[in-house]
């Protein structure tokens, strides 16, 4: 799916997704898979052709087109592409996978031939509105549609026009207009068409038969024409007799003002004949009518002139951007098609074949059906995500192995689970990483999201391809608790016990154990005064241990402490509670911590051992218990920048400080940083400030009042109790992020009453989110997100800006309100964030490799399937020709690479039988200049003198070779030999530089080219030139020399010459200039078509 901002979303089966980001933020005109090859071609609005490597998820090659590209098509199953432009030219490109480059081939469909065949001059800016290769023609035939309604069927193998159709061919008579309007019986009309001699601009078209005999064309006036092209296969004359049976008109409305037919797709029904199916139409209805997708069931088994509209249904849409038809999955499901609609909001809606049949069978024309929605791996809007968290799981922890087994079982179960209607997701592409199936696989990270409906989902986030583990509903089985379905407002995860805490806007806290520690299944419902125990069977999966209901206030922050034995809870009303998760009881609940009752925005807990050092161990040993793990401090930050420090063991407040840098400052976040690795300069500044404050301790009270520190009438720890944490706090710093400033404080000094910051940085724009990150287990930087979407990376502790980026430059996202609530980061710089329907992970550190393991990403190209297709093709060379019109089904900005063997092997067999070499031979030379394959040259070597070349006389070769009678018959006349077996009435043909080099760059070319360069540059004598040229007889004997006629000069005007040869509109180069360039030296000798060339040769 191409997006307006230059991104491409690739979606396969089993929640396999990828996002490709183009360097330029431009919409795409076209998208097309190079089927079964692992590449995707795209055309940007600036006419840049891009080929994407799906395996490596990057651009493999680009080519900037000089003119405006108006049409694009890929020959199915090949690397060859057609390009149509605004000047009416159709060119051929090839993607060279080995060289990783897009090659512009010399083959172009000449406009002068088309104008002559159409019997009218073509304007300079007649755009090519569509190019389609004809099915069952091995890629030889190409249908070209022009904006004025002219259609050409071109045969590249014979370089001729097979068929011409246009508005002059609309010989519509009685009963050749099929009225498919809503208020009619869909029968043939007796009206006589008035379309004769009126130009009709084409807006869309598609094949309506598997063999390319019927073409459906949509016009800008709302008409739909079915053209019968079956006589094109049997005639050599494109001016063959035209019949009124060749075209039938369909009208979706009888109104005089109708919408253009923007999208046309055709799908064959289950019958074996090629005379019917379903036509999908977007547009063509009355102007001002409701936006619908019209599905017509058509039948012309008695001939196209007897076409009938059997049924019609108008599918109500929720916005429309594009559509595509997919073959049904499974080998035994017949030829059914699934309809995929892309809405303008970016949603995918799926209608399977059964659903479409039911809709068409209904009598009413307007219908709506329950679609198969794309089941997003990470739902963000339905249901609406409100908060998210990334939790770590210690690989060697006692619960890691058990959780990994649960994850493996959940993935296996999800693989066998289908939609409730029994409908399978129609896409099957892609292969999951094999790393997820290894025996030593362990879950290392979990991503947790809370939703508006009260539910919570847990994913395995060990690798970038997340997989769902659990869905925790809002209700608790066996007990009715009011408020459990309220919006989830806060989450926290304990890595040691794999316990999940869920807080909602009604003040409820639910505790879940992802892995059960025992067979205990009881549930505790804890209030401020009661602790009820309910025994119930909670089944398999996570177990809800307790529900706490202390205050009817939104929970803003949750933080586990003391290895999961404590849980700090911050409320919107400004109060804090500490819960004991081991006994499932609450320890204390504070009063409002600020006079303004400001909400709690951040909670951080630090634990200290008995030796007064900070505990940094990442896992709990079996000998350690919550009782002997030491003391802990809970740091609480309110929205109005008040800091409260609480002793989690004694439940006493240590200090309360007002830290607002300005009167109306708003705090955004708070971070506790270990500064043991800070530079000596920073530590010296910190110690100097501490010494100065110690000397001025007697004057600290008024200083504190001036700086905004306010003492509250609360019970604080005594100085001796506070001193117990002194050594543990000496290396800790507190980083306060406000909307307008960043401030770094010494935590020890703050608790002692020092309000001066160690470092401060004022912000020019409002900040809304921040995070710190580590490198090599040391604090190294700060990431700040502004409301404008700008991201800054700042140094620690100096807070200097190191680098600036933005959500737009990284992800093409605009910042949205409340986006920061679903953002979370890990300590090694991984940021997970959500925007609309999209979820992304951004790594701040280039050295971070957790989410950059290429083997961990799902493969977008199934190489095993590719090999299987090639093997099946090689084993079935006599398979019947393709009867499916899949190549004509894919168009627009949404493309499918569905390449099931049972669906496409017949057509791929046809392509592979001739191989790419067949198409290479067709397109490696310009039209009419293909090398002759009927004549082989096995003559003996001849000697040729310069004097033997006669420009105005028939060429005579003096040689001693002999010709047999058979050779004379095969090689024909002298003129046929000169012009490669062309007929007498055919004009000599132009050759390009590439063509000449490809033909004459053989063993004798070096002796042919160098003398010509030396004659011009160094003035070698004629005698030496003759001697050197004698060695070039092998090249010259194949040289086809001929005069150009006046007709050829008129046809190939200056502008036309440059357009045909891909150049600019510069003046012609003279012969001297041409021959001075070694690239053109061969052309100067071979193209003897002007007086200047003859004069040049006569001089030398």
From TrEMBL:
One of its GO terms (molecular function) is syntaxin binding. SMART domains: WD40. One of its GO terms (biological process) is exocytosis. One of its GO terms (cellular component) is cytoplasm. Residues 965-979 have a biased composition (Basic and acidic residues). Keywords: Exocytosis. Residues 965-986 are annotated as: Disordered. It comes from the Eukaryota. Belongs to the WD repeat L(2)GL family. This is Lethal giant larvae (Lgl)-like C-terminal domain-containing protein. It comes from Carpinus fangiana. The lineage of its organism: Eukaryota, Viridiplantae, Streptophyta, Embryophyta, Tracheophyta.
């Amino acid at each position: 799916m191409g997006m307006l901002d230059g991104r491409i979303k690739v979606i396969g089966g089993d929640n396999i997704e990828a996002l490709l980001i183009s360097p330029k933020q431009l919409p795409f005109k076209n998208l097309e898979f190079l089927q079964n090859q692992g590449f995707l071609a795209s055309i940007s609005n600036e006419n840049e052709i891009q080929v994407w490597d799906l395996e490596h998820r990057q651009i493999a090659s680009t080519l900037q087109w000089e003119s405006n590209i108006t049409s694009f098509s890929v020959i199915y199953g090949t690397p060859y592409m057609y390009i149509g432009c605004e000047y009416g030219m159709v060119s051929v490109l090839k993607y060279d996978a080995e060289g990783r480059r897009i090659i512009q081939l010399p083959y172009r469909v000449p406009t002068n031939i088309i104008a002559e065949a159409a019997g009218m001059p073509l304007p300079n800016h007649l755009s090519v509105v569509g190019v389609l290769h004809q099915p069952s023609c091995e890629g030889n035939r190409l249908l070209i549609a022009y904006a004025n309604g002219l259609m050409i069927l071109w045969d590249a193998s014979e370089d001729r026009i097979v068929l011409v159709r246009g508005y002059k061919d609309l010989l519509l008579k009685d009963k050749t207009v099929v009225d498919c309007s809503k208020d009619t019986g869909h029968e043939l009309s007796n009206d006589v068409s008035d379309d004769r001699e009126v130009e009709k601009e084409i807006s869309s078209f598609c094949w309506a038969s598997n063999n390319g005999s019927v073409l459906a064309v949509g016009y800008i006036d709302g008409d739909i024409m079915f053209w019968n092209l079956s006589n094109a296969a049997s005639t050599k004359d494109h001016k063959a007799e035209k019949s009124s049976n060749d075209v039938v008109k369909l009208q979706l409305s009888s109104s005089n003002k109708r919408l253009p037919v923007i999208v046309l797709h055709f799908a064959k029904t289950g019958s074996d004949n090629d005379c019917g199916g379903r036509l999908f139409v977007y547009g063509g209805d009355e102007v001002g009518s409701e936006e619908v997708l019209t599905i017509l069931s058509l039948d012309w088994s008695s001939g196209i002139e007897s076409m009938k509209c059997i049924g019609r249904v108008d599918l109500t849409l929720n916005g429309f951007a594009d559509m595509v038809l997919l073959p049904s999955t499974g080998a035994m499901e017949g030829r059914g098609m699934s309809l995929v609609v892309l809405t303008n909001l970016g949603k995918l809606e799926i209608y399977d074949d059964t659903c479409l049949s039911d809709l068409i069978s209904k009598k009413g024309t307007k219908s709506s059906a329950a679609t198969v929605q794309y089941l997003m791996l990470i739902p963000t809007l339905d249901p609406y995500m409100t908060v998210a968290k990334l939790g770590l799981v210690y690989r060697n922890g006692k619960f890691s192995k058990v959780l990994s087994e649960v994850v493996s079982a959940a993935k296996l179960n999800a693989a066998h689970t289908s939609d409730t209607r029994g409908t399978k997701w129609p896409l099957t592409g892609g292969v999951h990483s094999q790393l997820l199936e290894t025996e030593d696989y362990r879950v290392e990270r979990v991503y947790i999201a809370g939703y508006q409906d009260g539910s919570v989902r847990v994913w395995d986030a060990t690798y970038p391809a997340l997989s769902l583990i659990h869905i925790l509903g809002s209700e608790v089985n066996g007990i009715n608790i009011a408020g459990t379905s309220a919006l989830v407002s806060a989450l926290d995860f304990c890595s040691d016990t794999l316990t999940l805490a869920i807080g909602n806007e009604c003040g409820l806290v639910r505790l879940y154990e992802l892995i059960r520690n025992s067979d205990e299944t009881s549930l505790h419902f804890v209030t401020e005064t009661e602790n009820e125990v309910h025994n119930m069977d909670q089944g398999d999966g996570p177990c809800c241990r307790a529900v706490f209901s202390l205050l009817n206030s939104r929970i803003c922050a949750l933080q586990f402490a003391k290895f999961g034995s404590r849980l700090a809870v911050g409320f919107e009303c400004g109060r804090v509670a500490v819960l004991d998760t081991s006994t499932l009881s609450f320890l204390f609940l504070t009063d409002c911590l600020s006079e303004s009752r400001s909400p709690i925005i951040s909670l951080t807990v630090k634990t200290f051992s008995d030796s007064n050092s900070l505990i940094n161990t990442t896992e709990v040993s079996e000998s350690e218990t919550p009782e002997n793990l030491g003391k802990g401090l809970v740091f609480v930050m309110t929205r109005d920048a008040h800091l409260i420090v609480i002793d989690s063991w004694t439940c006493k407040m240590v200090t309360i400080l007002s830290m607002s840098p300005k009167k109306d400052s708003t705090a955004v976040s708070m971070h506790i940083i270990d500064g043991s690795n800070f530079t000596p300069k920073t530590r010296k500044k910190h110690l100097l400030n501490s010494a100065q404050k110690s000397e001025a301790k007697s004057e600290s009270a008024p200083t504190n009042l001036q700086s905004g520190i306010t003492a509250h009438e609360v019970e604080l720890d005594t100085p001796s109790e506070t001193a117990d944490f002194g050594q543990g706090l000496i290396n800790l710093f507190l980083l306060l992020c406000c909307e307008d400033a960043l401030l770094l404080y010494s935590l020890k000094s703050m608790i002692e009453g020092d309000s001066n910051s160690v470092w401060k940085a004022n912000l020019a724009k409002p900040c809304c989110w921040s995070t710190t990150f580590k490198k090599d287990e040391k604090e190294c930087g700060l990431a700040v997100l502004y409301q404008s979407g700008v991201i800054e990376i700042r140094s620690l502790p100096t807070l200097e800006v190191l680098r600036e980026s933005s959500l737009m430059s990284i992800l093409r996202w605009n910042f949205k309100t409340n986006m920061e609530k679903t953002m979370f980061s890990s300590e090694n710089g991984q940021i997970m964030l959500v925007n609309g329907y999209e979820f992304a992970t951004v790594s701040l550190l280039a050295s971070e490799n957790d989410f950059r393991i290429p083997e961990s990403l799902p493969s977008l190209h199934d190489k095993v399937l590719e090999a299987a297709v090639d093997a099946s093709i090689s084993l079935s060379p006599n398979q019947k020709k393709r009867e499916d019109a899949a190549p004509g089904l894919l168009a627009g900005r949404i493309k499918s690479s569905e390449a099931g063997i049972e669906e496409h092997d017949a057509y791929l067999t046809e392509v592979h039988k001739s191989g790419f070499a067949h198409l290479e031979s067709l397109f490696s030379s310009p039209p009419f200049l293909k090398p002759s394959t009927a004549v082989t040259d096995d003559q003996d070597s001849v000697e040729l003198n310069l004097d033997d070349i006669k420009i105005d006389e028939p060429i005579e070769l003096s040689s001693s070779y002999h010709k047999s009678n058979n050779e004379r018959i095969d090689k024909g006349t002298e003129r046929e030999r000169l012009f490669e077996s062309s007929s007498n009435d055919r004009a000599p043909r132009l050759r390009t530089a590439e063509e000449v080099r490809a033909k004459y760059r053989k063993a004798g070319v070096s002796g042919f080219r160098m003398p010509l360069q030396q004659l011009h540059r160094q003035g070698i004598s004629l005698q030496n030139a003759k001697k050197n040229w004698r060695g070039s007889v092998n090249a010259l004997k194949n040289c086809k020399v001929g005069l150009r006629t006046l007709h050829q000069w008129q046809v190939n005007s200056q502008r036309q010459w440059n357009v045909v040869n891909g150049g600019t509109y510069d003046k012609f180069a003279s012969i001297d200039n041409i021959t001075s360039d070694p690239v053109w030296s061969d052309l100067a000798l071979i193209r003897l078509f002007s007086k200047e060339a003859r004069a040049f040769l006569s001089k030398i």
